[in-house]
Amino acid sequence: MALVPYVENAGMGLQKFHQPLATFSFASHTIQIRQDWRQLGVAAVVWDAAVVLSTYLEMGAMELRGCSAVELGAGTGLVGIVAALLGAHVTITDRKVALEFLKSNVQANLPVHVQPRAIVKELTWGQLENFLPGEFDLILGADIIYLEETFTELLQTLEYLCSNHSVILLACRIRYERDNKFLSMLEKQFTVSQVHYDPEKDVYIYRAQKRSQREDL
User: Fold this and answer.
1) Which domain holds residue 154?
2) Quick check: is 83 in a domain?
3) What's the mean pLDDT in 120-143?
4) 183 by DSSP, 3-state: which?
5) Under 8 Å CB-to-CB from 93, ≥6 apart: which residues?
6) Which residues pair with 21 in a beta bridge?
7) What is the pLDDT of residues 146-174, one digit of tens each?
8) In this structure, are residues 40 and 6 in contact, taking their beta carbons and an 8 Å threshold?
9) Where in the cell is it found (predicted)?
C-alpha cells in the first residue's frame, strides 16, 4: 500500500483514522486494531472496505476452515485476522515498511492457539520469488486498487498466486474512473462478478476466478 503523509488539519471524514485504536467484533472476538496514521498513513488505518470484507467473510460467503488464504496490501491486517479466526490458514502481506506494525496487530488479536494459522510476510506486488504459483485457495484484498501505477503488478500477482480453482475477493469503493479501468483489466484475465454491495459504506465486493480455456474460445 502507498504511504501518504499525515495532514494535521484533515477534514472530519478522516477523524476516525486519527484514533489510536479501532475496535470491532468479529467471529465472537473483540478485535482492537492499533492505528498510526501519523507515521504510516493509509497503511496503518482501517478502511471501510476492510470492515465490509470482514463482515462478508463472517456471513459465510466462503468455507474458510482449512482454506489457504492470502491478504494482499493488508495494512492493519483486519481482514486476515478475521479469516484466521474463522479457520483459514492465512498469509498476511504488505510491503516491508509496514510489516512490524502489521505483525503487532496480528499477534495482539489472535489467541495463542490461532496464531500458528497466521503468517505475516513481505510482498511487494510483482516480486514473487518467495511464493509458489497457484499457492492459495483464496486471495483477499480490501481497498487495494486505488493507485493506477500499481495495476500491472497487482494483476501479475493475482495471476501468479491463483490456481484454476482459486477465488479472489476484492472489496473497494469505486471513487474514480481508474477504479473501473482496473476492473476492466481484471476481466481480461478473470471471470469477475459483483457479489455484494454495502450501501451505507458504498463498498462493493467483487469475486474473480481464472478464466477456463473453454471461456476463452
Assistant:
1) 20-216
2) yes
3) 97
4) helix
5) 70, 71, 72, 73, 74, 120, 121, 122, 123
6) 34
7) 889 999 999 999 999 999 999 999 999 98
8) no
9) Cytoplasm
pLDDT digits (tens, 9 = 90+) for 65-80: 999 999 999 999 999 9
Three-class secondary structure of residue 137 per DSSP: strand
User: Residues 74, 61, 147, 198: is their CA dihedral positive or negative?
Assistant: negative
Mean pLDDT confidence for 139-143: 96
Q: Which grid cell sits at 139?
A: 486471495
Exposed e or buried b per residue across 144-171, where buried means at least 16 C-beta atoms within 10 angstroms of its C-beta: bbbeeebbeebbebbeebbeeebbbbbb
- Tell me the CATH number at 83: 3.40.50.150
pLDDT tops 70 at residue 13: no
In sequence order, the 6+-apart residues with CB closer than 8 A to the CB of 27 are 58, 82, 85, 86
Contact between residue 53 and residue 171 where contact means Cβ atoms under 8 Å apart: yes
Check whether 204 has a pLDDT greater than 70. Answer: yes
DSSP H helical ranges for the chain: 37-40, 48-58, 78-85, 99-109, 151-161, 177-189, 213-216
From residue 88, give the alpha-carbon distance in Å to each of 16, 66, 81, 140.
Answer: 29, 5, 10, 12
Residue 3 domain flag: no
Structural domains of the chain, count: 1
The answer as to whether 45 is a domain residue is yes
